[in-house]
Amino acid sequence: MSNTITLSDQDKSTLRTAAYGAVALMAAAGAPHKGTSHGSIALTSATGLVGHVLSAKSKDIHLQGKSVAELAEHVLPSLTAAVHLLGKQYPGEDDNFRDTVLVAVEAAAQPRKGEPSPAVAAMARKITAALDA
Length: 133
Description:
Blueprint: H1 9-28, H2 33-44, H3 48-55, H4 68-89, H5 93-109, H6 118-132
């Protein structure tokens, strides 16, 4: 599959920024540190085109913002853009990306005991909505 990747460098950056940004948003919302580590591992464990893009070593992940709101203004639209981009260029990979990000969000949200905090659960819903938009 890696021989047939024709995404531009900008497209790859959008995918990585969106996916790793989702985990960063979970951390900013209060997800436990161990959970966010598991979320990042979930991203690098992806398969298919998405897996190739997310596991590549790069310095093009751009997460900006001094507050959760500023970070969300950048990441949430990137998630939507990534799904649309993959849906147009690589049908099926949009679902792969969505599923991969949702697994990462679920991994990041796992508390030590009980349910995720309300803030973490709310951020997970916002990320899901951005992926579905």
